[in-house]
From TrEMBL:
<dbReference type="InterPro" id="IPR014359">
    <property type="entry name" value="KARI_prok"/>
</dbReference>
<feature type="binding site">
    <location>
        <position position="44"/>
    </location>
    <ligand>
        <name>NADP(+)</name>
    </ligand>
</feature>
<comment type="pathway">
    <text>Amino-acid biosynthesis; L-isoleucine biosynthesis; L-isoleucine from 2-oxobutanoate: step 2/4.</text>
</comment>
<keyword id="KW-0100">Branched-chain amino acid biosynthesis</keyword>
<feature type="active site">
    <location>
        <position position="104"/>
    </location>
</feature>
<feature type="binding site">
    <location>
        <position position="227"/>
    </location>
    <ligand>
        <name>Mg(2+) 2</name>
    </ligand>
</feature>
<feature type="binding site">
    <location>
        <position position="191"/>
    </location>
    <ligand>
        <name>Mg(2+) 1</name>
    </ligand>
</feature>
<keyword id="KW-0460">Magnesium</keyword>
<dbReference type="GO" id="GO:0050661">
    <property type="term" value="F:NADP binding"/>
</dbReference>
<keyword id="KW-0521">NADP</keyword>
<dbReference type="Pfam" id="PF07991">
    <property type="entry name" value="KARI_N"/>
</dbReference>
<feature type="binding site">
    <location>
        <position position="187"/>
    </location>
    <ligand>
        <name>Mg(2+) 2</name>
    </ligand>
</feature>
<keyword id="KW-0028">Amino-acid biosynthesis</keyword>
<dbReference type="GO" id="GO:0000287">
    <property type="term" value="F:magnesium ion binding"/>
</dbReference>
<feature type="domain" description="KARI N-terminal Rossmann">
    <location>
        <begin position="1"/>
        <end position="178"/>
    </location>
</feature>
<dbReference type="Pfam" id="PF01450">
    <property type="entry name" value="KARI_C"/>
</dbReference>
<feature type="binding site">
    <location>
        <begin position="21"/>
        <end position="24"/>
    </location>
    <ligand>
        <name>NADP(+)</name>
    </ligand>
</feature>
Length: 336
């Protein structure tokens, strides 16, 4: 944690270009502007984000134009798009001494982007989705952020990265210093082993176990998917202690005696192997190759996930629970 609360002072007379206007891009651009910074959003003229950013009251420009004057360039497009964006729009146009900022270290850490030696390279990764980063800022709060310095060409990289973190509201909450390797590897591990990969495959295995044993699919859905939120909310708010406080004694005893049989030493050994593949670059190499080959395997796997019977059962049940207000589910992955 930082000793004193950073301010936006180091960027007050700077021009900031935010490339990409998705989850993080929109939140960062609006928060920085409301913090009094000079912000331009760099997006493609014919893309959907152009009109959206303008309607939100922001200046917009093509990425290459946005970069030309910028003292700080925030790269907030999807990770796989960033290397070409760097080569085409950033490298030929960035001012010497400008700062290049990422919200995830993937491309720098795995050497998909080799930044020019005369620019600063930093990272600010909010620990929450863009919508939360914006909402908390509007309430006068902030979402905690990780920050890191990969390259300090100007000698002012630290001042700039802390000013950016202050500008998006993160400094109001908490800033934790890290490095690109730690941010990238822990982020990938979390989403693969626990949050996305681990949690969904645990749910599907539980659902299949119940349905194959003859129980009603609707009841299986409630027990292993719907109610997961109640438990996650308790963990999120108060850790293991709060969960134990709110679940029954029977549930606690079942948890403590059966949980370790589901997730055991073998599971942990496989997690370690997944971490090894992240650390030695095999995962990054595989994903970049898949993306460059047109995402055929990625699309097939995603379509298979979305074709799981739990999806149809869940859609029917959620339609009777309007308070959930779900965003429309994808029927299939777009092919373009
Ligand atoms: P996103 O998919 O929501 O938005 C990407 C935006 O980039 C699009 O809206 C569009 O404006 C632009 N874009 C897309 N393709 C482009 C192209 N070819 N050229 C130029 N612009 C293009 O992305 P995101 O989820 O906000 O992720 C941005 C970065 O933030 C990534 O590095 C990601 O790892 C990181 N990050 C995301 C989150 C999150 O909660 N989503 C959290 C922390 C860090
Ligand atoms: Mg993450
Ligand atoms: Mg991630
Ligand atoms: Mg129950
Ligand atoms: Mg129970």
């Amino acid at each position: 944690m930082t000793a004193q609360t950073p301010t936006t002072a180091a960027l007050q007379s700077a021009k900031v270009a935010v490339l990409g206007y998705g989850s993080q891009g929109r939140a960062h651009a609006l928060n920085l502007k409301d913090s009094g910074l000079d912000v331009v959003v760099g997006v493609r003229r014919n893309g959907p984000s152009w009109d959206k950013a303008r309607a939100d009251g922001l200046k917009v420009a093509e990425p290459a134009d946005a970069v030309k004057d910028a003292d700080l360039i925030a790269v907030l497009t999807p990770d796989m798009v960033q290397p070409a964006l760097y080569t085409d729009a950033i490298a030929p146009n960035a001012k010497p001494g400008a700062a290049l900022l990422f919200a995830h270290g993937f491309n720098v850490h795995f050497k998909q982007i080799a930044p020019r030696a005369d620019i600063d390279v930093v990272l600010v990764a909010p620990k929450g989705p863009g919508a939360l980063v914006r909402r908390e800022y509007e309430k006068g709060h902030g979402v905690p952020c990780l920050y890191a310095i990969h390259q300090d060409a100007s000698g002012k990289a630290r001042d700039k990265v802390l000013a950016y973190a202050a500008g998006i509201g993160g400094a109001r909450a908490m800033l934790i210093e890290t490095n690109f390797g730690e941010e990238t590897e822990t982020d990938l591990f979390g989403e693969q082993a626990v949050l996305c990969g681990g949690a969904t495959k645990l749910v599907l295995a539980g659902y299949e176990t119940l349905v194959e044993a003859g129980y009603q699919p609707e009841i299986a859905y409630y027990e292993v998917l719907h109610e997961l939120k109640l438990i996650v909310d308790l963990l999120h708010e108060g850790g293991l202690a709060k969960m134990h406080q709110f679940i029954s004694e029977t549930a606690q005893y079942g948890d403590l005696t059966r949980g370790p049989r589901v997730v055991d030493g073998d599971t942990k050994a496989r997690m370690r192997k997944i971490l090894d593949e992240i650390q030695d670059g095999r995962f990054a190499q595989e994903w970049v190759a898949e993306y460059q080959a047109g995402n055929g395997n990625y699309r097939a796997l995603k379509n298979a996930d979305l074709a799981h019977p739990i999806e149809a059962v869940g859609a029917g049940l959620r339609a009777r629970m309007p308070w959930l207000n779900p965003t429309p589910a994808l029927a299939a992955v777009p092919t373009s």
